[in-house]
């Protein structure tokens, strides 16, 4: 089964989730990195304090330096001091120049601040002599990372929510676009637009939804054909019923006027029989076309069936010469005796009807690989080549047919549906010497039926 849509959704969700995790991780680390440094303006303020302290210290005015430090501590609510460092190596240790140049008591203004420490760090500015240092506890207002909790909340909740909403919208549009087209097509079909189709509207897309569209198109195609077939059948049936109804209506008018009606009763009876047969055949044809049943419940002998049908044909057409070539036995299984009897009877009657009085009709049943072939040939006028298929459509009558009354154009149409329902085929062709040849092929055993039996046995 095609699972392209499943893999599309899995890939989209998997890649989207991976991308979301990477983006959150990257932005979280990058944001925390950027927020761990003191703002540039505060760095300049700290450096300016250091220069002021160095200037007051170099001037030798300790009173002014002390006053300034006291005022700074009160104004910034912090601690500040100027101290001297005197490194004394012990136990013969040697101080390297690198240590002397890089030695610090506090933190430089450019250094990264650890945001997770609760206490603020002590910042340092080293004087030009390298031994005197201005120290200040970083004021709270200069501490970086003030909005870090809000940023984390955004990265952990707002950003994933926005990404998931965008991902859901993409998936929703991908799913709903063909479904909406299918909905519109279904509504249009229900409103009578039988030609609406969906698959062509989906372009090159190929997944489960296109399979659904193809299934809809197949359903619409079959349903549309059935509806049109039913409309044509009803229209043709109503047309065929008008003639016998008109004749019966005329007979009733004669009765009402007091005209002798004894000679009309056989005519009325015949018209009633014709209408009954017409309605029954039309209903059977509609059932075969709509339901397309598989008639495979009987086993029968075609030779015995043909013997019975030919006996009736000889009685009904005593002036015809029926030539037969039948095997001693022709057993077939998984078929329908009733359907085959009616189909073969219609074909033989059609041949006899179109054969002139005293003409010949040939019926031959021969075995062939996988089944049997029945041929019925007549000496009638034949059928125009362009009408060889149309004679199997309901209510079609070929020009040049018999003048005998009673036919209503459903016999061959019904015969083809019945033969196909048992797994067979029927075709028509003109004979070289004149007349029509009907060829019916019947399988000895339905292949699909045998497969079902094997499955049942295996189960």
TrEMBL record:
Domain HAMP residues, every copy: 173-228
First-listed, main subcellular location of the protein, grouped into a coarse class: membrane
GO molecular function: ATP binding; phosphorelay sensor kinase activity
Superkingdom field: Bacteria
Annotated keywords: ATP-binding, Cell membrane, Kinase, Membrane, Nucleotide-binding, Phosphoprotein, Transferase
Protein topology in the membrane: Multi-pass membrane protein
Broadest EC class assigned to this enzyme: transferase
Annotated PROSITE patterns: HAMP, HIS_KIN
Gene Ontology CC annotations of this record: plasma membrane
Subcellular location: Cell membrane
Catalytic activity of the protein: ATP + protein L-histidine = ADP + protein N-phospho-L-histidine
Residue ranges constituting the Histidine kinase domain according to the UniProt record: 236-446
InterPro entries attached to this UniProt entry: 2C_sensor_his_kinase (IPR050980), HAMP_dom (IPR003660), HATPase_C_sf (IPR036890), HATPase_dom (IPR003594), His_kinase_dom (IPR005467), HisK_dim/P_dom (IPR003661), HisK_dim/P_sf (IPR036097), HK_sensor (IPR031930)
EC number: 2.7.13.3
PANTHER family xref list: SENSOR PROTEIN CREC, SENSOR PROTEIN RSTB
This protein's name: histidine kinase
Organism, scientific name: Billgrantia gudaonensis
């Amino acid at each position: 089964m095609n699972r392209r849509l499943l893999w599309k959704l899995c890939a989209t969700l998997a890649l989207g989730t991976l991308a979301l995790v990477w983006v959150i991780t990257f932005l979280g680390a990058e944001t925390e990195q950027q927020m761990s440094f003191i703002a540039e303006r505060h760095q300049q303020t700290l450096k300016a304090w250091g220069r002021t302290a160095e200037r007051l210290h170099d001037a030798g005015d300790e009173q002014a330096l002390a006053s300034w430090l006291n005022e700074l501590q009160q104004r910034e609510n912090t601690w500040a001091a100027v101290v001297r460092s005197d490194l004394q190596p012990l136990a013969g240790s040697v101080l390297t120049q690198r240590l002397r140049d890089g030695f610090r008591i506090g933190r430089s203004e450019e250094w990264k601040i650890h945001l997770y420490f609760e206490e603020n760090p002590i910042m340092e500015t080293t004087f030009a002599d390298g031994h005197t240092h201005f120290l200040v506890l970083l004021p709270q207002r200069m501490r970086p990372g003030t909005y870090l909790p809000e940023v984390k909340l955004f990265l952990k909740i707002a950003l994933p929510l926005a990404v998931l909403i965008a991902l859901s919208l993409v998936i929703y549009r991908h799913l709903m676009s063909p479904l909406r087209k299918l909905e519109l097509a279904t509504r249009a079909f229900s409103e009578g637009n039988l030609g609406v189709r969906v698959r062509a509207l989906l372009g090159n897309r190929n997944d489960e939804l296109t399979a659904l569209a193809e299934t809809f198109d197949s359903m619409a195609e079959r349903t549309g054909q059935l509806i049109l077939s039913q409309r044509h059948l009803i229209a043709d049936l109503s047309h065929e019923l008008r003639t016998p109804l008109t004749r019966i209506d005329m007979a009733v008018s004669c009765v009402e006027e007091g005209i002798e009606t004894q000679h009309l009763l056989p005519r009325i009876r015949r018209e009633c029989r014709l209408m009954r047969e017409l309605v029954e055949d039309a209903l059977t044809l509609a059932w075969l076309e709509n339901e397309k049943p598989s008639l495979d419940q009987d086993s029968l002998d075609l030779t015995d069936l043909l013997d019975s049908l030919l006996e009736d044909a000889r009685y009904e057409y005593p002036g015809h010469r029926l030539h037969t070539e039948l095997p001693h036995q022709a057993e077939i299984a998984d078929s329908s005796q009733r359907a085959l009897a009616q189909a073969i009877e219609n074909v033989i009657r059609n041949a006899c009807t179109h054969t002139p009085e005293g003409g010949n009709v040939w019926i031959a049943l021969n075995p062939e690989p996988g089944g049997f072939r029945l041929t019925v040939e007549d000496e009638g006028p034949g059928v125009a080549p362009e009408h060889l298929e149309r004679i199997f459509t309901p209510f079609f009558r070929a020009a040049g047919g018999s003048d005998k009354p009673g036919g209503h154009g459903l016999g061959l149409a019904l015969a083809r549906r019945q033969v196909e329902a048992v797994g067979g085929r029927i075709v028509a062709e003109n004979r070289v010497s004149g007349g029509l040849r009907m060829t019916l092929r019947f399988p000895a055993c339905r292949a699909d039926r045998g497969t079902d039996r094997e499955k049942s046995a295996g189960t």
